[in-house]
Amino acid sequence: MAWWLQRWDTLRGSLWFIPGLGVLGALLLSVMTLQIDYQLSYEELSPPNWLITTSSAARLTLSSLAGALITVTGVVFSMTMLTLAQTSSQYGPRLLRSFLNQNVTQLTLAVFVGTSLYCMSVLRTIREIGEGDLFVPHLSVFVGLCLGLMSLLFFVYFIHYTASSIQAESVIRAVSYELDDAIERLFPKCLGDDSDDSNADSSNSGDSDPSPEKPDSTILIQADSIGYIQGIDGDRLIELADQLDTVFYVRAKPGDYIFHGAPLLDVAEDEVEEEFQSKVRETFLTGVRRTPRQDTGCVIKELVEVAIRALSPGINDPHTAVACINSLASALSSVAGREFPDSHRRNEEGKVRVIVQTPTFSQLLDDCFREIRFYGADSFLVLEQLSKSLLMLSYFVQRKADAQAICRHLKIIESLAEKNLTVDEEKKQILAITEEGKNRLEKIV
């Protein structure tokens, strides 16, 4: 399943997949409408006048549509490349993944290319079929006109979408939606939720296998590929561990960059065949870029990069950084009320087979705010918003370790405000917010 999801993410992020489907759909539609035209006798049916056309009008209409749409397709492609270039330079190259995953551009290209191909396919069928008789596919020509009208509507919407999608608010909102989806997928259970899955039931039962200690003698399985880990097939790893009746201690996690010889996991065995090691390596799915399928840090880094670029001297836009902080704080508030996945993965019998590295709230908090705090250390707006966000998070955290992590960040912001801010009023304002947050967190700590 993990392999298929990786392939789907790759296809969804390509510019050719949906236009390719549009080409196939146009060919099938042309075959279907032409087959209907071949079967119908328009002289006997007496169709409405708006459906009937002449051979010369049909040729002119279809050829004009096909040529115009090919030209407009070039315009759409140029606008797409310009948007991608501007996004890469202003918000960071990692944001290109988010833009490529949005389907408006791909659908527009699919409609234009598909309609143009449909018109050319129908155009070639207008010919003489007897002595002085011409075959005119009236229905197919009418469908071509409808597709041309739909292409015009898509083009108008594409212009609107392109103009709005490069705005900072739209970029941040699109990435924030992806982050929310990743959190919902990777942290599905809320605190206090009694609906556990089968693995959780078995782990909490009295018959479950206790957490094993890592033995002194293990076999290290190393990577034989280069790239970012986009996903790990956990079910397959459990199956392989069952075959050896052993435990896998996974070192790498989604989002890590690996290369030849990098450690992947330890096997609690004295000897493992090379063929079996190859099967284990296949469960680690790698690619040239990070994806949010199993890696929340991928989307977090994208928002952080937008904020850091906004704080650079060349752009100097702290309000965009504040918007990124708000989105990150909203995501963290959702994580604070959810259970983190168990690092011990069990089989159906409840035996621990795989031990993985799972994220903590403290790690996610560091990923969200550490770099922004570093580059915005002398900005009152950034420090103020960071302190307000941490204060807001204090209303959501329930675990002691989470509260301690927020307290640590509040103390760092206090020291930065006292060191870097020269206006006493601004300094007092931030210190008041951090003090309120620490007082509230003392009840949890």
From TrEMBL:
InterPro entries: DUF2254_membrane (IPR018723). Residues 193-216 are annotated as: Disordered. Residues 200-209 have a biased composition (Low complexity). Keywords: Membrane, Transmembrane, Transmembrane helix. The chain crosses the membrane at residues 15-36, 57-84, 104-123, 135-159. Pfam families: DUF2254 (PF10011). The keyword Plastid does not apply. This is DUF2254 domain-containing protein. It comes from Thalassoglobus polymorphus.
